[in-house]
Protein backbone atom coordinates (compact mmCIF):
# COMPACT_ATOMS: atom_id res chain seq x y z
CA UNK A 1 0.00 0.00 0.00
CA UNK A 2 0.96 3.62 -0.52
CA UNK A 3 0.06 6.94 1.07
CA UNK A 4 0.35 9.89 -1.30
CA UNK A 5 0.57 13.42 0.10
CA UNK A 6 0.67 16.84 -1.52
CA UNK A 7 -1.60 19.55 -2.94
CA UNK A 8 -4.59 17.85 -4.56
CA UNK A 9 -6.66 19.43 -7.33
CA UNK A 10 -9.43 17.60 -9.17
CA UNK A 11 -13.09 17.68 -10.25
CA UNK A 12 -15.79 15.67 -8.56
CA UNK A 13 -19.56 15.38 -8.43
CA UNK A 14 -21.38 16.78 -5.43
CA UNK A 15 -25.19 16.80 -5.30
CA UNK A 16 -25.20 16.11 -9.05
CA UNK A 17 -23.10 19.19 -9.71
CA UNK A 18 -19.51 19.40 -10.85
CA UNK A 19 -17.17 21.10 -8.40
CA UNK A 20 -13.46 21.79 -8.16
CA UNK A 21 -11.94 20.19 -5.07
CA UNK A 22 -8.66 21.72 -3.92
CA UNK A 23 -6.82 20.62 -0.78
CA UNK A 24 -3.43 22.23 -0.20
CA UNK A 25 -2.25 19.66 2.35
CA UNK A 26 -4.05 16.55 1.19
CA UNK A 27 -3.36 12.85 1.34
CA UNK A 28 -4.89 9.61 0.16
CA UNK A 29 -4.17 5.91 0.57
CA UNK A 30 -3.96 3.43 -2.28
CA UNK A 31 -4.77 -0.24 -1.67
CA UNK A 32 -3.09 -3.23 -3.29
CA UNK A 33 -5.61 -3.23 -6.13
CA UNK A 34 -4.60 0.31 -7.08
CA UNK A 35 -7.78 1.92 -5.75
CA UNK A 36 -7.94 5.04 -3.57
CA UNK A 37 -9.27 3.53 -0.35
CA UNK A 38 -9.10 6.51 2.03
CA UNK A 39 -8.63 10.30 2.09
CA UNK A 40 -7.80 12.18 5.26
CA UNK A 41 -5.02 14.12 6.91
CA UNK A 42 -1.56 12.65 6.51
CA UNK A 43 -1.28 11.95 10.22
CA UNK A 44 -4.59 10.11 10.28
CA UNK A 45 -3.68 7.93 7.30
CA UNK A 46 -0.27 7.05 8.75
CA UNK A 47 -2.00 5.89 11.92
CA UNK A 48 -4.65 3.96 9.99
CA UNK A 49 -2.17 2.31 7.59
CA UNK A 50 1.14 1.99 9.47
CA UNK A 51 2.46 -0.56 6.97
CA UNK A 52 1.95 1.74 3.95
CA UNK A 53 4.89 3.45 2.26
CA UNK A 54 4.70 7.25 2.19
CA UNK A 55 5.35 9.15 -1.02
CA UNK A 56 5.51 12.82 -0.15
CA UNK A 57 4.89 15.32 -2.95
CA UNK A 58 4.87 18.38 -0.71
CA UNK A 59 5.01 21.61 -2.69
CA UNK A 60 3.76 19.85 -5.81
CA UNK A 61 0.31 19.44 -7.35
CA UNK A 62 -1.43 16.06 -7.62
CA UNK A 63 -4.05 15.88 -10.37
CA UNK A 64 -5.92 13.08 -12.15
CA UNK A 65 -4.22 11.63 -15.20
CA UNK A 66 -5.58 12.86 -18.52
CA UNK A 67 -7.77 10.88 -20.90
CA UNK A 68 -6.95 11.64 -24.53
CA UNK A 69 -9.96 10.57 -26.58
CA UNK A 70 -8.42 10.84 -30.06
CA UNK A 71 -4.83 10.41 -31.28
CA UNK A 72 -3.01 8.67 -34.17
CA UNK A 73 0.08 6.58 -33.47
CA UNK A 74 1.54 6.52 -37.03
CA UNK A 75 1.16 10.29 -37.42
CA UNK A 76 3.62 11.09 -34.64
CA UNK A 77 6.36 11.71 -37.21
CA UNK A 78 4.37 14.20 -39.30
CA UNK A 79 3.26 16.79 -36.74
CA UNK A 80 3.21 20.22 -38.38
CA UNK A 81 3.05 18.92 -41.96
CA UNK A 82 0.92 21.64 -43.53
CA UNK A 83 -1.76 21.37 -46.24
CA UNK A 84 -4.73 23.52 -47.31
CA UNK A 85 -7.36 21.30 -45.65
CA UNK A 86 -8.20 17.80 -44.45
CA UNK A 87 -8.59 15.82 -47.69
CA UNK A 88 -5.43 17.13 -49.43
CA UNK A 89 -3.56 16.64 -46.15
CA UNK A 90 -4.60 12.97 -46.08
CA UNK A 91 -3.53 12.37 -49.68
CA UNK A 92 -0.28 14.34 -49.67
CA UNK A 93 1.12 13.49 -46.24
CA UNK A 94 -0.92 11.18 -44.02
CA UNK A 95 -1.28 8.19 -46.28
CA UNK A 96 2.39 8.21 -47.40
CA UNK A 97 3.49 8.51 -43.75
CA UNK A 98 1.32 5.58 -42.71
CA UNK A 99 2.67 3.48 -45.59
CA UNK A 100 6.26 4.18 -44.52
CA UNK A 101 5.34 3.39 -40.92
CA UNK A 102 5.00 -0.27 -41.91
CA UNK A 103 8.54 -1.19 -41.00
CA UNK A 104 10.33 -3.92 -39.07
CA UNK A 105 8.90 -5.04 -35.74
CA UNK A 106 11.94 -3.61 -33.98
CA UNK A 107 11.43 -0.15 -35.47
CA UNK A 108 7.69 -0.21 -34.82
CA UNK A 109 8.30 -1.17 -31.19
CA UNK A 110 10.87 1.58 -30.82
CA UNK A 111 8.37 4.09 -32.23
CA UNK A 112 5.67 2.77 -29.88
CA UNK A 113 7.92 3.36 -26.87
CA UNK A 114 8.55 6.91 -28.07
CA UNK A 115 4.80 7.41 -28.47
CA UNK A 116 4.13 6.17 -24.93
CA UNK A 117 6.95 8.36 -23.62
CA UNK A 118 5.26 11.42 -25.11
CA UNK A 119 1.87 10.49 -23.63
CA UNK A 120 3.37 10.01 -20.17
CA UNK A 121 5.51 13.13 -20.45
CA UNK A 122 2.26 15.06 -20.82
CA UNK A 123 0.38 13.38 -17.97
CA UNK A 124 -1.86 11.16 -20.11
CA UNK A 125 -2.90 7.90 -18.43
CA UNK A 126 -5.46 6.69 -21.00
CA UNK A 127 -5.39 7.23 -24.76
CA UNK A 128 -7.86 6.31 -27.50
CA UNK A 129 -5.44 5.48 -30.30
CA UNK A 130 -5.73 4.88 -34.02
CA UNK A 131 -2.97 2.57 -35.17
CA UNK A 132 -2.31 1.99 -38.86
CA UNK A 133 -4.25 -0.53 -40.93
CA UNK A 134 -1.44 -3.05 -40.45
CA UNK A 135 -1.87 -5.90 -37.98
CA UNK A 136 1.77 -6.02 -36.85
CA UNK A 137 1.86 -2.29 -36.11
CA UNK A 138 -1.23 -2.52 -33.93
CA UNK A 139 -0.06 -5.66 -32.16
CA UNK A 140 3.28 -4.02 -31.34
CA UNK A 141 1.49 -0.94 -30.00
CA UNK A 142 -0.70 -3.05 -27.71
CA UNK A 143 2.40 -4.91 -26.54
CA UNK A 144 4.20 -1.71 -25.57
CA UNK A 145 1.13 -0.30 -23.77
CA UNK A 146 0.91 -3.57 -21.83
CA UNK A 147 4.61 -3.48 -20.94
CA UNK A 148 4.64 0.17 -19.90
CA UNK A 149 1.47 0.05 -17.77
CA UNK A 150 -0.54 2.67 -19.66
CA UNK A 151 -4.28 2.42 -20.34
CA UNK A 152 -5.30 2.25 -23.99
CA UNK A 153 -8.35 1.95 -26.19
CA UNK A 154 -6.55 0.97 -29.38
CA UNK A 155 -7.76 0.18 -32.87
CA UNK A 156 -6.36 -1.22 -36.08
CA UNK A 157 -7.65 1.25 -38.65
CA UNK A 158 -10.04 -0.36 -41.14
CA UNK A 159 -9.79 0.83 -44.75
CA UNK A 160 -10.69 -0.98 -47.96
CA UNK A 161 -11.18 1.88 -50.43
CA UNK A 162 -10.17 5.44 -51.36
CA UNK A 163 -6.59 5.16 -50.13
CA UNK A 164 -3.28 3.91 -51.58
CA UNK A 165 -3.17 0.15 -52.10
CA UNK A 166 -0.51 -0.55 -49.40
CA UNK A 167 -2.97 0.74 -46.75
CA UNK A 168 -6.01 -1.19 -47.94
CA UNK A 169 -6.94 -4.42 -46.17
CA UNK A 170 -9.70 -6.60 -47.68
CA UNK A 171 -12.81 -7.08 -45.57
CA UNK A 172 -12.32 -10.69 -44.53
CA UNK A 173 -8.62 -10.24 -43.72
CA UNK A 174 -9.43 -7.15 -41.66
CA UNK A 175 -12.09 -8.97 -39.66
CA UNK A 176 -9.81 -11.93 -38.96
CA UNK A 177 -7.10 -9.56 -37.75
CA UNK A 178 -9.59 -7.74 -35.53
CA UNK A 179 -10.56 -11.05 -33.90
CA UNK A 180 -6.91 -11.92 -33.35
CA UNK A 181 -6.27 -8.60 -31.63
CA UNK A 182 -9.45 -8.94 -29.58
CA UNK A 183 -8.52 -12.39 -28.30
CA UNK A 184 -4.96 -11.33 -27.54
CA UNK A 185 -5.43 -7.90 -25.95
CA UNK A 186 -9.03 -6.93 -25.22
CA UNK A 187 -9.45 -6.63 -21.43
CA UNK A 188 -5.74 -7.18 -20.74
CA UNK A 189 -5.05 -6.30 -17.08
CA UNK A 190 -8.23 -4.19 -17.12
CA UNK A 191 -6.17 -1.56 -18.93
CA UNK A 192 -6.46 -2.36 -22.63
CA UNK A 193 -9.46 -2.49 -24.94
CA UNK A 194 -9.95 -2.99 -28.66
CA UNK A 195 -11.66 -0.25 -30.65
CA UNK A 196 -13.13 -1.15 -34.02
CA UNK A 197 -11.81 1.71 -36.12
CA UNK A 198 -13.24 2.45 -39.54
CA UNK A 199 -11.07 5.42 -40.47
CA UNK A 200 -14.12 7.33 -41.67
CA UNK A 201 -17.07 6.38 -43.84
CA UNK A 202 -15.40 7.24 -47.20
CA UNK A 203 -12.50 4.85 -46.55
CA UNK A 204 -14.71 1.81 -45.89
CA UNK A 205 -17.08 -0.01 -48.21
CA UNK A 206 -20.63 -0.53 -46.94
CA UNK A 207 -19.89 -4.26 -46.63
CA UNK A 208 -16.92 -3.62 -44.36
CA UNK A 209 -18.85 -1.19 -42.15
CA UNK A 210 -21.72 -3.66 -41.95
CA UNK A 211 -19.34 -6.39 -40.76
CA UNK A 212 -17.70 -4.10 -38.21
CA UNK A 213 -21.14 -3.22 -36.87
CA UNK A 214 -22.02 -6.90 -36.69
CA UNK A 215 -18.77 -7.63 -34.85
CA UNK A 216 -19.56 -4.94 -32.32
CA UNK A 217 -22.98 -6.51 -31.74
CA UNK A 218 -21.23 -9.81 -31.06
CA UNK A 219 -18.64 -8.18 -28.78
CA UNK A 220 -20.55 -5.23 -27.28
CA UNK A 221 -17.79 -4.24 -24.84
CA UNK A 222 -15.50 -3.30 -27.73
CA UNK A 223 -15.36 0.37 -28.65
CA UNK A 224 -15.98 2.03 -31.99
CA UNK A 225 -13.93 5.06 -33.02
CA UNK A 226 -14.07 7.00 -36.25
CA UNK A 227 -14.11 10.52 -37.70
CA UNK A 228 -17.25 12.58 -38.13
CA UNK A 229 -18.26 15.94 -39.60
CA UNK A 230 -14.76 17.41 -39.55
CA UNK A 231 -14.66 19.24 -42.87
CA UNK A 232 -17.23 20.68 -45.28
CA UNK A 233 -15.66 18.94 -48.31
CA UNK A 234 -15.87 15.67 -46.38
CA UNK A 235 -19.61 16.24 -45.85
CA UNK A 236 -20.12 16.77 -49.59
CA UNK A 237 -18.22 13.56 -50.30
CA UNK A 238 -20.47 11.70 -47.85
CA UNK A 239 -23.55 12.91 -49.75
CA UNK A 240 -22.09 11.50 -52.98
CA UNK A 241 -21.10 8.15 -51.46
CA UNK A 242 -24.25 7.63 -49.38
CA UNK A 243 -27.06 9.45 -51.23
CA UNK A 244 -29.82 7.66 -49.32
CA UNK A 245 -28.57 8.78 -45.88
CA UNK A 246 -30.23 11.95 -44.58
CA UNK A 247 -26.98 13.06 -42.93
CA UNK A 248 -23.51 11.92 -41.95
CA UNK A 249 -24.59 10.50 -38.59
CA UNK A 250 -27.19 8.28 -40.24
CA UNK A 251 -24.42 6.58 -42.20
CA UNK A 252 -22.92 5.29 -38.96
CA UNK A 253 -26.34 4.62 -37.45
CA UNK A 254 -27.33 2.47 -40.44
CA UNK A 255 -24.34 0.17 -39.85
CA UNK A 256 -24.83 -0.13 -36.05
CA UNK A 257 -21.71 1.94 -35.45
CA UNK A 258 -23.36 4.65 -33.35
CA UNK A 259 -23.92 3.81 -29.69
CA UNK A 260 -22.75 4.31 -26.15
CA UNK A 261 -19.30 2.81 -26.93
CA UNK A 262 -18.76 5.09 -29.93
CA UNK A 263 -16.18 7.88 -30.03
CA UNK A 264 -16.68 10.30 -32.93
CA UNK A 265 -13.78 12.65 -33.52
CA UNK A 266 -14.45 16.32 -34.34
CA UNK A 267 -18.20 16.85 -34.83
CA UNK A 268 -17.76 20.41 -36.06
CA UNK A 269 -20.46 20.64 -38.73
CA UNK A 270 -23.49 19.19 -36.97
CA UNK A 271 -27.14 20.25 -37.23
CA UNK A 272 -29.74 20.38 -34.44
CA UNK A 273 -31.33 17.03 -35.25
CA UNK A 274 -27.96 15.25 -35.21
CA UNK A 275 -27.15 16.83 -31.84
CA UNK A 276 -30.29 15.30 -30.35
CA UNK A 277 -29.45 11.88 -31.77
CA UNK A 278 -25.85 12.07 -30.54
CA UNK A 279 -27.14 12.75 -27.04
CA UNK A 280 -29.84 10.05 -27.19
CA UNK A 281 -27.30 7.45 -28.32
CA UNK A 282 -24.79 8.54 -25.64
CA UNK A 283 -22.05 8.99 -28.21
CA UNK A 284 -18.83 10.70 -27.13
CA UNK A 285 -17.64 13.54 -29.33
CA UNK A 286 -13.89 14.11 -29.16
CA UNK A 287 -13.14 17.81 -29.58
CA UNK A 288 -9.71 18.32 -31.17
CA UNK A 289 -9.11 22.08 -31.33
CA UNK A 290 -5.39 22.12 -32.20
CA UNK A 291 -6.12 19.89 -35.19
CA UNK A 292 -9.22 21.83 -36.26
CA UNK A 293 -7.33 25.12 -36.19
CA UNK A 294 -4.27 23.67 -37.91
CA UNK A 295 -6.29 22.32 -40.86
CA UNK A 296 -8.80 25.17 -40.87
CA UNK A 297 -11.63 22.68 -40.44
CA UNK A 298 -13.92 24.98 -38.46
CA UNK A 299 -14.85 26.16 -34.98
CA UNK A 300 -16.39 23.52 -32.72
CA UNK A 301 -19.67 24.59 -31.10
CA UNK A 302 -19.18 23.63 -27.45
CA UNK A 303 -22.26 25.57 -26.38
CA UNK A 304 -24.52 23.69 -28.81
CA UNK A 305 -23.17 20.33 -27.63
CA UNK A 306 -23.64 21.32 -24.00
CA UNK A 307 -27.17 22.57 -24.58
CA UNK A 308 -28.19 19.13 -25.86
CA UNK A 309 -26.18 17.23 -23.20
CA UNK A 310 -23.87 15.64 -25.77
CA UNK A 311 -20.84 14.08 -24.07
CA UNK A 312 -17.66 15.92 -25.06
CA UNK A 313 -14.10 14.76 -24.44
CA UNK A 314 -10.83 16.23 -25.65
CA UNK A 315 -8.42 14.78 -28.18
CA UNK A 316 -4.95 15.89 -29.16
CA UNK A 317 -5.39 14.32 -32.63
CA UNK A 318 -1.66 14.07 -33.29
CA UNK A 319 -0.54 14.49 -36.10
CA UNK A 320 -2.98 17.12 -37.43
CA UNK A 321 -3.04 18.12 -33.78
CA UNK A 322 0.13 19.95 -32.92
CA UNK A 323 0.77 18.80 -29.34
CA UNK A 324 0.47 15.73 -27.11
CA UNK A 325 -0.54 18.09 -24.32
CA UNK A 326 -4.12 18.11 -23.08
CA UNK A 327 -3.30 21.37 -21.29
CA UNK A 328 -2.61 22.88 -24.72
CA UNK A 329 -5.79 21.26 -26.01
CA UNK A 330 -7.81 22.90 -23.21
CA UNK A 331 -6.06 26.19 -23.95
CA UNK A 332 -7.13 26.04 -27.61
CA UNK A 333 -10.65 24.82 -26.74
CA UNK A 334 -11.07 27.98 -24.68
CA UNK A 335 -9.99 30.15 -27.62
CA UNK A 336 -12.21 28.34 -30.14
CA UNK A 337 -15.20 28.86 -27.86
CA UNK A 338 -14.28 32.52 -27.41
CA UNK A 339 -14.26 32.98 -31.18
CA UNK A 340 -17.81 31.62 -31.19
CA UNK A 341 -18.78 34.10 -28.48
CA UNK A 342 -18.99 31.44 -25.79
CA UNK A 343 -17.02 31.36 -22.55
CA UNK A 344 -16.10 27.94 -21.15
CA UNK A 345 -15.27 27.78 -17.45
CA UNK A 346 -11.87 26.18 -16.75
CA UNK A 347 -13.58 23.41 -14.76
CA UNK A 348 -15.50 22.35 -17.88
CA UNK A 349 -12.48 21.80 -20.10
CA UNK A 350 -10.57 20.16 -17.23
CA UNK A 351 -13.50 17.82 -16.57
CA UNK A 352 -13.65 16.96 -20.28
CA UNK A 353 -10.07 15.69 -20.01
CA UNK A 354 -10.67 13.82 -16.74
CA UNK A 355 -13.87 12.79 -14.96
CA UNK A 356 -16.37 13.48 -17.77
CA UNK A 357 -14.26 11.61 -20.30
CA UNK A 358 -14.07 8.67 -17.91
CA UNK A 359 -17.84 8.52 -17.54
CA UNK A 360 -18.44 8.84 -21.29
CA UNK A 361 -16.01 5.97 -21.94
CA UNK A 362 -17.79 3.77 -19.42
CA UNK A 363 -15.33 4.20 -16.55
CA UNK A 364 -17.06 5.51 -13.45
CA UNK A 365 -13.80 5.12 -11.51
CA UNK A 366 -11.41 7.23 -13.61
CA UNK A 367 -10.60 10.92 -13.72
CA UNK A 368 -11.10 11.81 -10.06
CA UNK A 369 -9.08 11.43 -6.85
CA UNK A 370 -11.87 10.50 -4.44
CA UNK A 371 -12.28 7.23 -2.55
CA UNK A 372 -13.26 4.37 -4.84
CA UNK A 373 -11.49 5.75 -7.90
CA UNK A 374 -8.52 4.17 -9.64
CA UNK A 375 -5.27 5.75 -8.53
CA UNK A 376 -4.42 7.24 -11.93
CA UNK A 377 -2.73 10.57 -11.36
CA UNK A 378 0.03 12.94 -12.40
CA UNK A 379 2.31 15.05 -10.25
CA UNK A 380 3.01 18.60 -11.41
CA UNK A 381 6.13 20.47 -10.30
CA UNK A 382 5.41 24.10 -11.18
CA UNK A 383 8.96 25.15 -10.29
CA UNK A 384 10.12 23.60 -13.56
CA UNK A 385 8.40 26.46 -15.38
CA UNK A 386 9.17 29.66 -13.44
CA UNK A 387 6.38 31.71 -15.03
CA UNK A 388 3.84 29.08 -13.94
CA UNK A 389 5.35 28.95 -10.46
CA UNK A 390 5.13 32.74 -10.17
CA UNK A 391 1.55 32.71 -11.43
CA UNK A 392 0.64 29.85 -9.07
CA UNK A 393 1.83 31.88 -6.09
CA UNK A 394 -0.30 34.85 -7.11
CA UNK A 395 -3.55 32.89 -7.60
CA UNK A 396 -6.33 33.84 -5.21
CA UNK A 397 -8.71 30.95 -5.96
CA UNK A 398 -8.74 27.33 -7.12
CA UNK A 399 -10.28 28.41 -10.42
CA UNK A 400 -7.45 30.88 -11.00
CA UNK A 401 -4.94 28.13 -10.30
CA UNK A 402 -6.62 25.79 -12.77
CA UNK A 403 -6.72 28.51 -15.41
CA UNK A 404 -2.99 29.16 -14.89
CA UNK A 405 -2.30 25.46 -15.39
CA UNK A 406 -4.41 25.33 -18.55
CA UNK A 407 -2.50 28.18 -20.15
CA UNK A 408 1.01 27.68 -18.75
CA UNK A 409 1.64 24.05 -17.79
CA UNK A 410 3.49 21.70 -20.13
CA UNK A 411 5.62 18.54 -20.19
CA UNK A 412 8.46 20.24 -18.27
CA UNK A 413 6.21 20.26 -15.22
CA UNK A 414 5.23 16.57 -15.12
CA UNK A 415 7.32 14.94 -12.41
CA UNK A 416 5.66 11.53 -12.27
CA UNK A 417 2.67 9.56 -13.51
CA UNK A 418 0.80 6.74 -11.77
CA UNK A 419 -1.69 4.21 -13.20
CA UNK A 420 -3.61 1.70 -11.06
CA UNK A 421 -1.51 2.67 -8.05
CA UNK A 422 1.79 2.01 -9.86
CA UNK A 423 4.33 4.67 -10.71
CA UNK A 424 5.00 4.25 -14.45
CA UNK A 425 6.98 7.44 -15.06
Low-confidence stretches: none
Number of strands: 16
Global shape: globular
Structural class: alpha/beta
Radius of gyration: 21 Å
* CATH homologous superfamily title of the largest domain: Metal-dependent hydrolases
What is the name of the CATH class of the largest domain? Alpha Beta
Helix content: 25-40%
Distance between the termini: 18 Å
Largest sheet: 9 strands, parallel
Count of DSSP-assigned helices:
16
Oligomeric description of these chains:
single chain
Could you say what the CATH topology of the largest domain is called?
TIM Barrel
Percent strand: 15-25%
Number of domains: 2
Q: What is the correct CATH architecture of the largest domain?
A: Alpha-Beta Barrel
Overall pLDDT score = 97
What does this structure look like?
The chain has 425 residues and is α/β, with parallel strands linked by helices. Helices cover 39% and strands 24% of the residues. The protein is built from 16 helices and 16 strands. Strands 5, 6, 7, 8, 9, 10, 11, 12 and 13 form a nine-stranded parallel β-sheet that branches. The protein has a seven-stranded mixed β-sheet with strand order 3-2-1-4-14-15-16. The longest helix has 17 residues. The protein is globular.
Write the layout of secondary structure elements.
Layout: E1 2-14, E2 17-30, E3 36-39, H1 42-48, E4 53-64, E5 66-72, H2 86-100, H3 105-121, E6 124-130, H4 135-148, E7 151-155, E8 157-158, H5 171-185, E9 192-198, H6 206-218, E10 223-228, H7 232-241, H8 248-254, E11 262-266, H9 272-280, E12 284-287, H10 289-295, H11 302-307, E13 311-314, H12 326-339, H13 346-352, H14 355-360, E14 377-380, H15 386-394, H16 398-408, E15 414-419, E16 422-423
Parallel strand pairs: 1-4, 5-6, 6-7, 7-9, 8-9, 9-10, 10-11, 11-12, 12-13
Antiparallel strand pairs: 1-2, 2-3, 4-14, 14-15, 15-16
Amino acid sequence: MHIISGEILHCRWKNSKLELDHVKDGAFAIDKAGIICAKASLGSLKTQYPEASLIDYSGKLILPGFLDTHIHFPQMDMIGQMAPSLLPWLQQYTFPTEISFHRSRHLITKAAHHFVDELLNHGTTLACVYSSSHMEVTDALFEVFAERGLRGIIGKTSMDRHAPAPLLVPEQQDLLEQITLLERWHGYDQRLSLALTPRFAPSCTPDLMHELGRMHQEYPDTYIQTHYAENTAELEWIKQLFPKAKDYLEVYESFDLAGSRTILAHGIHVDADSLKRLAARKILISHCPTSNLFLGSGLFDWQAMDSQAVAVGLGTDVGAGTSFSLWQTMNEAHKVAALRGCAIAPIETFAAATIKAGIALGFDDLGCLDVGYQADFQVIDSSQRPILDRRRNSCTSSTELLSALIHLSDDRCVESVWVKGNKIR
